[in-house]
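The freezer alarm interrupted the setup, so I double-checked each line after restarting. Inputs confirmed:
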Amino acid sequence: AQSVAQPEDQVNVAEGNPLTVKCTYSVSGNPYLFWYVQYPNRGLQFLLKYITGDNLVKGSYGFEAEFNKSQTSFHLKKPSALVSDSALYFCAVRRPNNAGNMLTFGGGTRLMVKP
Amino acid sequence: EAQVTQNPRYLITVTGKKLTVTCSQNMNHEYMSWYRQDPGLGLRQIYYSMNVEVTDKGDVPEGYKVSRKEKRNFPLILESPSPNQTSLYFCASRQAGGPHEQYFGPGTRLTVT
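Predicted 3D structure, all chains:
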């Protein structure tokens, strides 16, 4: 079975400060890892993914994520937060050979960026 | 414009009254899936489809049915809705093979009284 944990229900950060949203996972084999963002009254939007190779993955809107195999983590980061980054963020995992069972999601972390 | 559409966006119904939530994608994707989103639980997969006439259960299939008669459409059917099916529902699609990301619809907020 595969699982994803997002240990923080909410992260608060001041505009201009760096932000980190944490994600850890449990899956057999090498995973595909994803981050999605959900703005109010909207569906989920893809931010970035890790497949293989460089552990630092760059995505949309200036976000990046660092894959750490030994810690089974895939934390989302941004050097300088914007108020418009305030949203709900989901980490997700999929096993490469589990094509049908599409994704397992974490519980979500609400990011609040204050001016 | 590439998109996944869902209808209706909002629905209030009563226990036991059959309903269907439609989902359609215009990207010729093979894979489609339904999720429900509940606070603190993230998104949980209800059913998925790998192609026309190929469907399978996800993590929380009880009380739901799906069909995939056409590649673009993947309706979610609640034969006898119950209050514990009150939730926010998302349809998603992606290309077959490889680590392709999913595209999500805007969501359907369902309330069963």
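Quick read of the result. The CA atoms of residues 8 and 109 of chain B lie 8 Å apart.
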